[in-house]
Amino acid sequence: MHLLPADQLEPVRAHLDRQGYAVASVVTPVEGGLRAAQAEIARTLRLPAVAGTNLDAMADALRDLPQIWGTDQVALLWEDAERLAADDGRAWWILGEILDDAEDLTVVAFGEARMGRPSDLPS
User: Fold this and answer.
1) What is the CATH number of domain 2-114?
2) What region holds the Barstar (barnase inhibitor) domain (predicted)?
């Protein structure tokens, strides 16, 4: 997984398009933690419905990305990824590990240049 500041979204998208990637974009849901983020990622990647509620099913379905998308060059652009990392670090880690293990998926997570809860930042 690549972690980049939010202002790099459009340049990265343009680069991936030029390289012939199938690009899927997801935004971390405002509420819901692990399951809401998992469901959005599964929907965005066109995975079977069960992959949105079952982590093992998600890991298995990610192996089928080349068949689902018709290419072995699939990229997931994950906007507001820092929201999940700040709100539920364990959920961030779990989803990150599953996505990182997918051989035919490039994941680019976008967030603020400085991560953490606003209350943790100096005034």
Assistant:
1) 3.40.50.300
2) 38-104
